[in-house]
Design goal:
Strand content: 25-35%
Shape: elongated
Distance between the termini: 137 Å
Low-confidence stretches: 256-273
Radius of gyration: 45 Å
């Protein structure tokens, strides 16, 4: 028993019982500072003015019963003392909130267990208060971690590399995809039925374990571009899993869409503990359980639980040795507090229990059973595991969490292990060997300080900054700093918390993109000038039956007799064909092969004049494999076709004269000259030597 003196209020109207109590305390030298109250009224006066470690009250008093004191003893351990035969009253008292009860006997033996009863009641009360504080602290820290982690706009998820099951995802992920834990990543992200061919597992596992793989891809489901940062990390159960942060870079890729902001949602992961009351024998049978205890163990009623559980060690305890352990502790100390163990429920599932037990003794002080309370702490255990998982993810991610106190110099009260990526340790900041300002790039520090000052003065409690820092190795890195200022109800700053993310790669990519965009504009301008000055026609049109022109240069408009490109673009492609069937055949040919080269077509000008044209074209397809449009080059070959026709005519005439007018050499020579001239016009070699 502890040496600390216990302040106890004894509510007893029987003088003999008061004297017996006082004599017992003195003989046993119990560390009690006790005060007697002889009535309900007197007890209430004491309870209104003073604080007690415990209150003992006889049930039957001159001006009422101990029940009349319940509204005054809510914060004190309350023990009811009843006479023999009042067991039902004792049980009723326990249900109403009493911590324990004692049954008076004529010999005064109940006083022998008084010290243990009082001490257990006080310990039980202290344990309840400590448990409540612990649960509140865990809940607060978990909420802070979730709040900070879910405030990150980038998509973060963890997946098993073998089963491809999603193990964790933040709010940003859930805001984009409908998902549940255990879903396949390739199904959720790509709407596929099997793993993606471009999966990054081979770049971060095996011989690449420990390396970070950065890559970009376009999600065909939401059409967004992402910059992915992948790395293998160790999961709480020991397996290696794929961690990925996907930064939406659609704006950089397409310059037309902004990043979507993830909604913050908060979820309460703890439930209030439920307390059960039970009484059991030394050999492992329940003598009494209340409805709450039955419900904790999954039974419909106390009667069902007592009938079905006949061996507590074997049927209830997951590890029977734990019951033997708590029996040993009770035998040695008389009671045990906050004893944690796992039990089976009726359906075979397991839960965690925190129990407070005390021994029940017979008249010979022999241990015959136990009485106690049980609290379902499964939610707390699961919450601790979830907290550990979140902390492990944070410590293994590239996002660094900071927490500054609202004191001069803003000392760091928390920084995540991710700070090691810059060569620093958490102790560098905890020990105050290093202030955060000391690692900010000197040229950026004045701007950063001025911005923070302006935000605080304007009461802007959420803000983002981009600046450079210097690593321990002397390298310069770009950071994205997202800060949250936490104030009390009076508006005073309590602390500042935030996330820091290395965006050096993004900065380099943006600079490269800017330069590439400039080069692209220059290239497009040269291409446009070239196309506009070509003497052949250049066009882009659709492949549908009604066909429309999407692009065209002036040469093609002029070729068909139109005054401008705008006028030409308003006509339908089939309107240029002399025969509509030729248009169908042309589309079929390019559909089958994807392109045509020097295809000769019979077309017509704006005024109906027929012309011959040579066309080379290539098809472009959409994601479903359908032709989206056709790009082509067209050349007017009417003059060449006429020359070819004239050549054939002259050849036939030459052959005719040669066969029927032998000897007319002059005519033959003249025809040979004409044939050679026509061949030269067509760019071919002379056929005859004259």
């Amino acid at each position: 028993m502890e040496n600390k003196k216990r302040k106890i209020l004894i509510v007893e109207d029987d003088k003999i019982d008061r004297m017996a109590f006082e004599r017992f305390v003195n003989e046993e030298k119990l560390p009690y500072n006790y005060i007697f109250a002889e009535s309900v009224k007197e007890a209430k006066k004491f309870l209104e003015k003073e604080i007690f470690d415990a209150v003992l009250a006889d049930y039957r008093l001159g001006d009422g019963t101990a029940f009349d004191l319940f509204d005054k003893v809510e914060t004190f351990p309350f023990i009811i003392v009843t006479g023999t035969g009042d067991e039902e009253i004792a049980v009723k008292a326990m249900k109403s909130g009493a911590y324990d009860y004692l049954i008076k006997d004529a010999e005064g033996n109940y006083l022998k267990i008084l010290p243990v009863t009082v001490d257990n009641a006080i310990k039980h009360k202290l344990a309840e208060e400590a448990s409540k504080r612990t649960e509140e602290e865990i809940l607060l820290k978990h909420k802070q971690l979730l709040s900070i982690f879910d405030s990150i706009d980038e998509v973060i998820y963890v997946a098993d590399p073998t089963t491809y099951e999603l193990l964790y995802f933040n709010e940003a992920f859930k805001s984009r995809w409908k998902v549940n834990v255990g879903d396949k990543c390739y199904k959720v992200l790509q709407n596929q039925t099997s793993p993606c061919s471009f999966c990054s597992n081979k770049y971060i596992f095996g011989e690449n374990l420990g390396k970070t793989y950065i890559w970009e891809w376009q999600n065909l489901v939401d059409r967004h571009w992402y910059r992915c940062i992948d790395r293998a990390i160790k999961w709480p159960d020991g397996r290696m899993v794929r961690y990925e942060m996907a930064i939406d870079v659609t704006e950089r890729k397409q310059t037309e869409e902004a990043l979507r902001q993830a909604e913050q949602k908060y979820r309460n992961i703890f439930e209030n503990a439920v307390i059960g009351i039970h009484q059991s024998t030394l050999d492992g049978r329940f003598l009494m359980v209340n409805q709450t205890a039955a419900r904790i163990h999954g039974y419909d009623s106390p009667e069902e639980m007592m009938a079905m559980v006949t061996d507590i060690s074997r049927q209830a305890f997951v590890k029977p040795g734990r019951r033997a352990e708590f029996i040993r502790l009770v035998q040695e100390h008389g009671s045990v507090s906050n004893f944690e163990y796992q039990v089976y429920r009726k359906d075979g599932s397991t839960i965690w229990i925190s129990g407070n037990e005390r021994g029940v003794y017979d008249a010979n002080s022999k241990l015959v059973g136990f009485e106690g309370t049980s609290i379902d702490i499964t939610d707390r255990k699961q919450a601790e595991e979830k907290r550990e998982r979140i902390e492990r993810i944070v410590d293994n991610s590239q996002v660094i969490l900071f927490h500054w106190l609202a004191e001069p110099g803003w000392p760091v009260s928390f920084v995540s292990e991710g700070i090691s990526q810059f060569g620093y340790t958490t102790d560098d900041f905890y020990s105050r060997r290093l202030d955060y300002a000391q690692i900010v790039y000197p040229e950026d520090l004045p701007r950063v300080a001025d911005e923070v000052k302006a935000y605080l003065e304007s009461r802007t409690d959420r803000f983002t900054q981009e600046y450079r820092i210097v690593t321990k190795a002397g390298d310069v890195r770009w950071l994205d700093d997202r800060t949250l200022v936490v104030r009390d109800q009076d508006g005073n700053i309590q602390h500042i918390e935030g996330t820091v993310l290395d965006i050096t790669e993004r900065k380099l990519a943006e600079e490269a993109s800017r330069r590439a965009t400039e080069k692209l504009r220059e290239s497009e301008e040269r291409y446009r000038t070239l196309v506009e000055n070509l003497t052949v026609g250049v066009y882009r049109n659709t492949a549908d039956p009604h066909g429309r022109f999407v692009q065209a240069n002036f040469a093609i408009a002029k070729m068909f007799g139109y005054d401008s490109v705008d006028e030409f673009m308003r006509i339908k492609v089939p309107d240029l064909y002399q025969e509509s069937e030729d248009r169908k055949l042309f589309v079929e040919a390019i559909t089958q092969t994807g392109s045509v080269t020097n295809k000769e077509l019979r077309l017509k000008k704006k005024d109906g004049t027929p012309i011959w044209a040579s066309v080379s074209a290539r098809a472009h397809y959409d994601e479903k494999g359908n032709i989206d449009w056709m790009d082509g080059v067209i050349e007017d070959i009417t003059e060449r076709k006429h020359a070819e026709e004239e050549l054939q005519k002259r050849l036939r005439e030459l052959e005719l004269y040669y066969n029927i007018t032998i000897g007319r050499e002059s005519r033959i020579i003249e025809l040979k000259h004409q044939v050679n001239e026509l061949l030269e016009r067509l760019g071919e070699k002379k056929k005859y030597k004259v």
